[in-house]
Task: inverse folding
């Protein structure tokens, strides 16, 4: 009954990997999965755009109070009014998480993915914490896998396997 | 782009007004609106069932951590891990709110509807706080309307007007 | 080891019952209890002022992000960054709750007091929801008492008994 | 008016660095600062014990609903009912943060420290993320300093300087 929910995390001001994020968003919609992001710009908007182009359901869980605070590609908006504490919710909403680059906000979501044992795909090609975390990680990856992807294609294969 | 989001609130252990909640859920889906509830049983489940029967998008924003904690009619589940504090999020996600009966949890959501100036439809026929609030209310209903409905039909007319 | 924690709730823009709130704050500190409020102005500030005058510990749990967002009588500030959703936390922090007047924000806290079975003292003399709730209440007050107070003295007697 | 608030973060099941955490807790209380932790066991309990021994104010901001869920050295308990999402609040409550070891929960708090530009002291001697983060960190430490400490004494000097 419930559709698989794929959460894409990454920086709101990233511009270098939008094509990749958009392609991943397209793949998520094509597979019939729901795309969930933090609803902001950058990577979140690019992935949302891709999923929206293929007619997918796109949910933005936003930090502010307003239904109008999400990027324009979201078909459904969940305002939390909780600021960055909403990052914990983004992660809980995931069957699988895709990290594309990212700074401190993304790192908090990676940490929550480990806390809640969610399968996590780290895009090595996008720099940021999605590249730095797998190397730095000090826990032993029990509970749920952390996998790495070198390109969009490998990311999509992981999504399909882990969702 | 974004679809209208109707939030139905009411008790998780209510049994007397499930037919009405289900009919309202059907109406919401028939109009192409997204139904959002707290994802639990009782009124939430009955409304979700109605919307699901008509192929609508049904979101459950649940208090617990798990994707499996919502009733079976939800097509998308947002676990918050925040317990009853998630009631604030339910309300923020609304274009319009429909209260059907309800106890203290519903009262907290009615209060948040007033705080965030959300249009609120109180079902007088269902008892509980949806009947008691309009009479007790001490604020002057500025910001957004509080309207009352005597039956399912009047409730649906209000939804259509306020969404 | 832990000191008793008394939470005072009421409107941030109330001006008519500040003397009463301040007297109640003094009593709380004199008894060695910790005073907790939402950290804003109005009733919260007046109660904090009273407790501060007697050297009490005064905690403000504020909706915003900043340590400087509380009234100046708070000795400790807990910023939540969660907006009004922090009302749920205020209530959970209570051994006993004192409602002095109040609008929709206070009503949400009264509702959470019922959800979490916290002893609740409603000041009838202060108007607002602290006067309107006991009359409107439709639940049967199981789990924890809801008591009413006609003046500051009766409020303080209830605090001492219920804390 | 407000006292300085020092937040100590670290694992709830850590046993190897309790003496160090306790000594740091003692220092915090001796300086007249308020100690805030997540209220659980391990590092949090050890630091709370130290501050409590010196008569300090010790606050536990706990994930659960109950006033009785904190370790026994807390003089004040703030239950959030939000699970691990309360980590965002712990960080917001800090004038300065001390990380002693730690796993994924601590990493989420380190991430929030960067998001909210809070001064962060990373104890290199305690292993875990407090040792791994400074090396892995990919942001440029703008906004607020990240400093490292090789022993308890250096940690205390940093606390005094940054609080």
Result:
């Amino acid at each position: 009954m419930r559709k698989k929910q794929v959460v894409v995390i990454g920086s709101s001001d990233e511009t270098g990997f939008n094509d990749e994020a958009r392609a991943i968003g397209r793949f998520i919609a094509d597979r019939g999965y729901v795309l969930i992001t933090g609803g902001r710009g950058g990577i979140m908007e690019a992935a949302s755009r891709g999923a929206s182009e293929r007619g997918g359901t796109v949910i933005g869980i936003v930090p502010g109070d307003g239904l109008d605070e999400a990027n324009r590609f979201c078909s459904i908006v969940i305002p939390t009014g909780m600021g960055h504490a909403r990052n914990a919710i983004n992660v809980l909403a995931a069957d699988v998480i895709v990290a594309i680059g990212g700074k401190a906000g993304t790192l908090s979501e990676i940490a929550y993915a480990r806390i809640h044992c969610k399968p996590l795909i780290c895009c090595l090609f996008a720099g940021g914490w999605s590249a730095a975390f797998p190397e730095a990680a000090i826990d032993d990856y029990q509970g749920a896998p952390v996998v790495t992807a070198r390109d969009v294609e490998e990311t999509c294969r992981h999504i399909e396997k882990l969702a």
In short: Chain D touches chain B through seven residues (CB under 8 Å).
